[in-house]
Structure formats: C-alpha cells, structure tokens
C-alpha cells in the first residue's frame, strides 16, 4: 500500500474505532474525486469522521450547519452594494473552499439543498448571471440524520446522485466502545497531505486498469438494475462511471494497478444503494437492493 494512504487509514482508525471497512470506503470516495454522504443517528461520529477527513487531507475547509431557515445566499454568498465604488461587490460564501463540511444537510430546506447541485456536479456556481469557479480540489462531505428524524427534508434523487458514496457507521462493538471510554482525550489531528500529494494519489487511482471482463461485469450489474422490476430507480450512466472510479480507488488501496470483481463488490452497496432506492434502506442492510443485485449477477463472465 502507498505509505501515505497507509498513514491516512491508520490515523482514521484511531479517531473512529472499530469501523475499518467504512473508513476505507470514505477514503476511496475522496481518492476517486467524489463527494461523500455519511448517514446515521445523532452521536454516531458522522461529524467527527468528516472533520478528520478534511483535516488529514490538508485542504482548506469550511463547516456549515444546515438549518431550516438557511438561505442559498448563506452558502453561496451575495452581492452587496458598495457606496464608495458605486457598484455591487460579491462576498463569497463558505462554499468557496476545498472541503465543505455540510453538517446535517437534510435539515436545510429543498431550496438551499438545490444550491449545491451545480457546485457538486461542475465545481462552479452561478450567481447574478456570473459563473464563478470553486477552488480545486473541491469536495462536499455531508452528514445527514435518518429521514424519520424530526425536522428533516429528504434529499431528492438528483441531489443523492451527486454523492459518489453514501455510508453509515452504525453502533460500535462493545470492545471498540470500551476502548473509546478508556481514551484520555480525543487525538489532535494534523494534515498528512497537501493538495499536490492528494492530486498525485488521485491521478494514480485513475491509472488503475480495467480489463474487458471487469467492465462486462460492471455493465451486467447496471443492466440488471434496469430490467429488474424490484428496482424503483435503475442505475444511470453516471452511476456506472461512479462504480468504476470507486472500484479503482479500492484496488489502489489494495496495492494493485488492475481491477478484480471483489473491488466492485466491496464498493457496490455504498455507491449504488442510495441511487437504487432513496428511502431508509442502508448500505449495510442484508436486505438492500444492492446486495440482491450482486447475488443475481455472476462475476465470472
């Protein structure tokens, strides 16, 4: 494994105890240049993980607490009339950063949620008829509470599709929770990467090769989602690209420059489940649609 990614995972596992698979998925998501959605009950470590990722990546970040009365201008910025210059001056909002921590994103109104669509898809925003480019790299790491929690607005399918992965942490094991209670204090994090190192890792991930048989397996899963009557939201071409990018990142963390079926199987629930069904089903559920699709398609073609 690359020494930098090895250190990143080791540090993350000291912050969030007993969740190595979920942390590996989170790192894969960002190495694949994707946005990450962390969904779980309050108090499960969602914001802690988001903050740890932003800090360890060594990028500029802003944390925004989404609320029901939040307006798009609170996120994007707004133009204020400057009497001295007799002109409007644009004051950038917190979205002008490299990592945006969107805390409890589904507590924001649909109008505010939609303000993120262009930014997440195209790394730019349009205000006052002017298109403004966001800093590079640009990631959204969002947390959200389950939809049955009070005061939440479900993210629409178009918004969910902008997230490369959705993961949940779940309750820790008894041993991990005991270890957490015995820790004297939370570890102080410091950056392990800079922007250039991160972009070099992302470039290395993109160079992982996919054999024709692997692509056939990926497309077979996608096609099964489109013809299976149990699937309310079939996978789109954007989802196909997301699956390939995430699988490449997983293979890279396994110190390989080629893809195997198990790479796709490892990331498939986190990448596909929130696209297949936007309801309360979780990636880790044995009854999820993503697991059913994996069981229906033979990886040996």
Low-confidence stretches: 280-286
Radius of gyration: 20 Å
**Architecture per CATH nomenclature, i.e. the level-2 architecture of the largest domain:** 3-Layer(aba) Sandwich
Shape, please?
globular
Neighbour order of strands in the largest sheet: 2-5-8-1-9
Number of helices: 13
Q: How far is the first residue's CA from the last residue's CA?
A: 29 Å
- Measured as a percent range, the helix fraction is 40-55%
- Total strands: the figure is 9
What summary fits the major beta sheet?
5 strands, parallel
- Mean pLDDT over the full residue set: 86
Looking at the chains present, what oligomeric state does this protein adopt? single chain
The tally of domains stands at 2
Describe the 3D structure.
The protein has helices at residues 3-15, 20-31, 46-56, 72-76, 110-114, 117-122, 157-160, 174-182, 195-206, 212-227, 237-253, 261-276, 289-296; strands spanning 36-39, 61-65, 77-82, 87-92, 99-103, 124-127, 130-133, 139-144, 165-167. The protein has 301 residues and is an alpha/beta fold. It folds into 2 domains: 1-183 and 193-206, Rossmann fold, CATH 3.40.50; 208-301, Magnesium chelatase subunit I, C-Terminal domain (Helicase, Ruva Protein, domain 3), CATH 1.10.8. The strands form 3 sheets. Strands 2-5-8-1-9 form a 5-stranded parallel beta sheet. A two-stranded antiparallel sheet has the order 3-4. The longest helix is centred in the last third of the chain and has 17 residues, at 237-253. It is globular, with a radius of gyration of 20 Å. Residues 280-286 have low confidence and may be disordered.
């Amino acid at each position: 494994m690359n020494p930098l990614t090895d250190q990143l995972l080791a540090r993350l596992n000291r912050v969030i105890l007993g969740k190595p698979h979920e942390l590996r998925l989170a790192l894969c998501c960002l190495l694949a240049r994707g946005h990450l959605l962390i969904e779980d009950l309050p108090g499960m470590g969602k914001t802690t993980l988001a903050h740890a990722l932003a800090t360890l990546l060594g990028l500029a970040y802003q944390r925004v607490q989404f609320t029901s009365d939040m307006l798009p201008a609170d996120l994007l910025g707004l133009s204020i009339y400057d009497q001295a210059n007799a002109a409007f001056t644009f004051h950038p909002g917190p979205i002008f950063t490299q990592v945006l921590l969107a805390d409890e994103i589904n507590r924001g109104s649909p109008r505010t949620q939609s303000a993120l669509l262009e930014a997440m898809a195209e790394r730019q925003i349009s205000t006052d008829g002017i298109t403004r480019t966001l800093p590079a790299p640009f990631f959204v790491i969002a947390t959200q509470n389950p939809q049955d929690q009070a005061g939440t607005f479900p993210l629409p399918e178009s918004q969910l599709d902008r997230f490369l992965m959705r993961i949940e942490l779940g309750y820790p094991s008894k041993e991990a929770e005991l270890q957490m209670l015995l820790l004297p204090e939370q570890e102080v994090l410091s950056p392990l990467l800079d922007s250039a190192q991160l972009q070099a890792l992302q470039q290395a991930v993109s160079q992982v090769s996919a054999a024709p048989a692997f692509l056939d397996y990926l497309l077979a899963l996608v096609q099964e989602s489109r013809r299976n009557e149990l699937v309310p939201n079939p996978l789109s071409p954007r989802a196909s690209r997301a699956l390939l990018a995430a699988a490449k990142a997983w293979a890279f963390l396994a110190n390989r420059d080629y893809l195997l079926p198990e790479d796709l199987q490892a990331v498939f629930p986190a990448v596909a489940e929130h696209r297949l069904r936007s309801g309360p089903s979780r990636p880790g559920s044995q009854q999820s649609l993503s697991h059913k699709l994996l069981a229906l398609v033979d990886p040996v073609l």
